[in-house]
Amino acid sequence: MSELAETEQIIENSDVIVTTKEEKGLGLFEKLLPLWIAVCMGLGILLSLYAPKIAENLDSLQVRGISIPIGICLFFMMYPAMLNLKASELKKLVRNPKPIILTLISNWLIAPFVGWGLARLFLAGHEQLIFAIILLSSSPCTAMVLVWGYMAKGNQEQNVITTSLNTITIIIGYAPMVALLSGISNISIDVISLIISVSFFIGLPLILGTISRLLIVKYKGEDWFKTKFVPVVGKISIVALLTTLVVLFSLNGNVMISNFNLLLLVSVPLLLGFVIVVGYNLLITRFTKLAYREGVITVIIGSSSHFEIAIATAIAIYGVGSLAALGTTMGLFWEIPIMVGLVYLARFLDRKGWWRGTTN
Length: 360
Hints:
Blueprint: H1 4-9, H2 28-31, H3 33-50, H4 52-60, E1 62-63, E2 66-67, H5 68-82, H6 98-122, H7 127-137, H8 144-151, H9 156-184, H10 191-220, H11 222-258, H12 260-287, H13 292-303, H14 307-318, H15 323-351
């Protein structure tokens, strides 16, 4: 996340990346993010077992059943992503719409129904885990894909345009898609809570992100916003993510231990879903003759999920100590290493001539 400022700096008005730090990629802390995630999950479980009073005190901080500490952490996980919304970028869609259209098809037609189908196949009888998969597969990513795209040396202008568009489409389409897939799965959910969750965890950060961006650029300038403000907020986002994991697992470590087999079970459709969706995107970008820089961004964004909103929605509807919340957290656990691996797979395939189109 701390690389987002550098990422935006190299975008401006050209499709060509020009930077002396092109080889840098992620810092050591970001590269070891899967390790920190596992450590925080383990720390949370230890707290639940050996310091249950801490978990009880955290759990008592609620408003209408929603944990205040987790609500704050989730907000700061969302807010940095909303700073990336650039409405002006959407005007560039007409220049080269094909890769962005392919991404939208993957995000809203392929991934949700693949996730739903696999959940029904492997998780029959486990309503909350099916719901967790629906939440994850119906949420296109709007933040970390900027980092993955930078690592892969993809077309970062396309990356910003698509993530900006995803921010808008997730506000419009997420609640209806989740409600649709839940309905045909005979899962009864509180639609009002779903809408409130999307409004609070996407709408509010979007409004505040847009306002703060305008004010900071006006009074401090675009360069200060990109090089000073965004990197700091990005680091806060990662800290909020790790803190959320500690709190989540401290509140329901016992639930996880007593249902460990279910967490392994929910990993099956999650991992298989990644294989299917990534495979589809690799094939479709080759079939439609995209060049590497456009194709790799299409694959990355079309294969990732917005795990923050999935976790937030699961908590809002089923509660912090629910299997739904733990199921969405497993999505986060697997996505980070898979997306890093996808970056290196894409580079390998590029050397083998997988994408043969011409960069626009």
